[in-house]
Amino acid sequence: MAYNNHVLLYRVPRAAFFTCALLLSACGSDEGTAQTASSASEPLDPCALVTETEAAEAMGAQTSESDRPSEANNEYLATCRYVAPRGQGLAVMTIMLHSPQYGRMGFRTAGEHPFDKETVAGVGDEAFRIGDPLNTLYVLKGDHYFTIGGNVEPDQARLLAIQATGRLP
Predict the structure, then answer these.
(1) What is the mean pLDDT, run by run of 10 residues, along the chain of 169 residues?
(2) How many Cβ atoms are within 10 Å of 1's Cβ, its own excluded?
(3) 80 partner at 20 to 30 Å CA-CA among 32, 146, 150, 164?
(4) Residue 66, helix vs strand vs coil
(5) pLDDT (0 to 100) of residue 109
(6) CA-CA distance, 93 to 58, in Å (whole number)?
(7) Is 169:128 a contact under the CB 8 Å cutoff?
(8) d(Cα 101, Cα 109) in Å, to the nearest integer?
(9) DSSP for 105-145?
C-alpha cells in the first residue's frame, strides 16, 4: 500500500518528530561549538541525573532497569529511559541530556516550538513545561540542557529536575 508523505507525517508521534527537528537544527549550527571544561571531560550519564528509585517513585510503580536506547544516543544527545508496568500497559519516562556545547542553543530552539509552554520557577537557570502533546519539562542550568518527559506528573517532573540539576557539574 502506498502512502503520501503527508500521511506518513501524521503517523510519526509529534514528540519524536519535534525531537528530530531539534537535533537536526543543532547539527548545522556553528553557535556554541567552543569546548567547555565539562564537555571536554567524561560525558554525563542521563541515568545518573534521575535514579531508578526516583523514577519508580515518580511513576508510581517499580521500574525495569534503565535503558540507554542506541537510536537516541550520540555526540549531541544522551537518553535514559525508564519503563514501569501501569494497569494493562506501560508507563515510560525519558531523560534526554543534550551536549553542553549545544545546550543553550538547543534550549532556545526548543522554546520556539509551536506548542503552548508554561514557565516553571525554581528549576535550574530557566525551565518551561509543555503539556499536551509532549508532557515534557525543559531545563537549562549553565550550559547543560535536559528534558524529563513521558508518564510523569508535572509536580513529580519538577522535583526530579531540581534533584537532577544538583547532580550537574
Answers:
(1) 38 39 38 37 82 89 76 83 88 93 93 91 96 92 96 94 95
(2) 2
(3) 32
(4) coil
(5) 94
(6) 9
(7) no
(8) 14
(9) HHHHHHTTSSS-EEE-TTSSSEEEEE-TTT-EEEEEETTEE
For residues 136 and 95, what is the distance between their CA atoms, to the nearest angstrom?
Answer: 10
Is the bond leading into 133 cis (omega within 30 degrees of zero)?
Answer: yes
| Partners of 90 in beta bridges | 85
**What tens digit of pLDDT does each residue of 45-73 get?**
899 999 999 998 988 888 776 778 776 77
Average pLDDT of the chain is: 77
- Going along the chain from its start, the domains and CATH numbers come out as 5-165 (3.40.1000)
pTM over 0.70: yes
**CA separation for the pair 48, 115 (Å, rounded):** 29
pLDDT of residue 22: 39
Q: What is the pLDDT of residue 157?
A: 96
* 3-state helix, strand and coil shares in percent for the chain, rounded to the nearest 5: 35, 25, 40
DSSP per residue over 8-26, as a string? HHHHS-HHHHHHHHHHHHH
Sign, CA torsion 21/133/89/156: positive
Q: Which residue has the cell 525543559?
A: 138
